[in-house]
Specification:
The longest helix has 9 residues, at 124-132. The protein is α/β, with parallel strands linked by helices. Strand 9, helix 4 (154-161) and strand 10 (165-168) form a beta-alpha-beta unit. The N and C termini lie close together (7 Å). Helices cover 12% and strands 29% of the residues. It holds the Pfam family Cyclase. This is Cyclase family protein.
């Protein structure tokens, strides 16, 4: 059974301060057209559960349509690290991490309509460690892999340096630690710096 770990996109979902909020509306109703309802959306590319392309923070970085989809489907490990502001290599080494994708659950409730004042972040040695054990995709249940007020985005750059794609705002409140099959695909938007994704997992062996 596949489990959806994607935040629902509603007109009340929290957006990054200063970004364009998500908005869905019916541009035309069936009553108006005589045949169909037609919806339209406007949004930042970094809304809800989303993927950053390196171009988001690096003018020379690859764009969302250039990310190899093969790395976004595969074996994943989900671990829980609660009540830590810094996630270090020492902490990560306590877990048996398998596959090329890792997800970290840092909270028991999502509160997707509230933008957080702070988020837990990895140290650079933790990112380097993940790369050394073959991780190619990193996902977390908060809106950034850097401190909320960071301007240098050191962790975004470090993930790119170690060839790891990062996914933010996974919905992990109803799933537990373990090993999973993972699929998380962005929209194929040419030239984009990021994209909302639909992420799903299924327990290994089920």
């Amino acid at each position: 059974m596949w489990i959806d770990i994607t935040q629902q996109l509603t007109n009340n979902i929290a957006h990054w301060p200063g970004d364009e909020p998500f908005h869905f509306k019916l541009s035309a109703t069936k009553e108006e057209t005589g045949s169909v309802n037609i919806g339209s959306i406007s949004t930042s590319t970094h809304i809800g559960t989303h993927m950053d392309a390196p171009y988001h923070f690096d003018e020379e970085g690859i764009k969302i349509h250039e990310i190899d989809v093969n790395r976004l489907i595969g074996d994943a490990t989900l671990i829980e690290i609660m009540d830590e502001t810094l996630i270090t290599q020492e902490i990560l080494k306590k877990y048996e991490i398998k596959g090329t994708i890792i997800m970290i659950k840092t909270k028991s409730e999502a509160h997707s309509e509230v933008f957080p004042e702070s988020v837990p972040v990895l140290t650079e040695d933790a990112i380097q460690y993940l790369s050394s054990i073959g991780i190619k995709v990193f996902g977390i249940d908060v809106p950034s892999v850097d401190d909320i007020d960071s301007k240098t985005l050191d962790n975004h750059h470090a993930f790119n340096q170690y060839d790891i794609i990062n996914i933010e705002n996974l919905l992990l409140e109803n799933v537990s630690e373990g090993y999973y099959n993972f699929i998380g695909l962005p929209l194929n938007i040419v030239g984009a710096d990021g994209s909302p994704i639909r992420a799903v997992i299924s327990k290994k062996g089920e």
